[in-house]
Amino acid sequence: MSEQITPTIEVGTEVPLLEFTLTRTDLVRYAAASGDFNAIHHSDHAARQVELPGVVAHGMLTLGSSLRAVTDWLGVDRIASIGVRFSKPVVVPDDGVGAHLTVTGSVTEVADDQATIALETRCGDEKVLTAFTVGVRR
């Protein structure tokens, strides 16, 4: 029988770096799963009509993908709360490469039964998710 190792959660503990890519194919798959077929998520023309620079990722796809920084580290069952500000849209070019995102963060507060983790998601130099906090059960 193997023993599960619980990561140490103390103020200042860094969340393991998460890097991921979103492609136009990912957007189509997410649209099918979520039912969100808003044209800004698949048409450059539609995105530009509303003054976006191009097709943008679904906010909840960006958030859900970014949360893997915590769930891959601690497990999904430890999530108690989530707070976030969608600061900038994630533009996903139709170049076969997509948009590269990075998630960093650290534990900022520890209480008896819960800890708070502050995260930040960037796409290139742009902060796309800010005021991003995750409460986790200890």
Describe the structure.
This protein is an alpha+beta fold. It has a domain at 13-22 and 58-137: Thiol Ester Dehydrase, Chain A, CATH 3.10.129.10. Helices cover 23% and strands 34% of the residues. It is built from four helices and five strands; from the N terminus they run E-H-H-H-H-E-E-E-E. The protein has helices at 24-34, 44-49, 59-66, 68-74; strands at 18-22, 79-86, 99-110, 114-123, 126-137. It has a five-stranded antiparallel beta sheet. A hairpin with a 2-residue loop joins strand 4 (114-123) and strand 5. It is elongated. 28% of the residues are buried.
CATH architecture name of the domain at 13-22 and 58-137: Roll
CATH superfamily of the domain at 13-22 and 58-137: Hotdog Thioesterase
Largest sheet: 5 strands, antiparallel
- The low-confidence runs, each spanning 5 or more residues with pLDDT under 50, are none
Q: Distance N terminus to C terminus?
A: 23 Å
- Strand percentage, roughly? 25-35%
The total of beta strands comes to 5
How many DSSP helices? 4
Radius of gyration: 17 Å
Describe the SSE topology.
Elements: E1 18-22, H1 24-34, H2 44-49, H3 59-66, H4 68-74, E2 79-86, E3 99-110, E4 114-123, E5 126-137
Antiparallel strand pairs: 1-3, 2-5, 3-4, 4-5
Pfam family, one: MaoC_dehydratas
Organism: Parenemella sanctibonifatiensis
Protein name: Dehydratase
Name its key features.
single chain; 138 residues; alpha+beta; Thiol Ester Dehydrase, Chain A; five-stranded antiparallel beta sheet; 4 helices
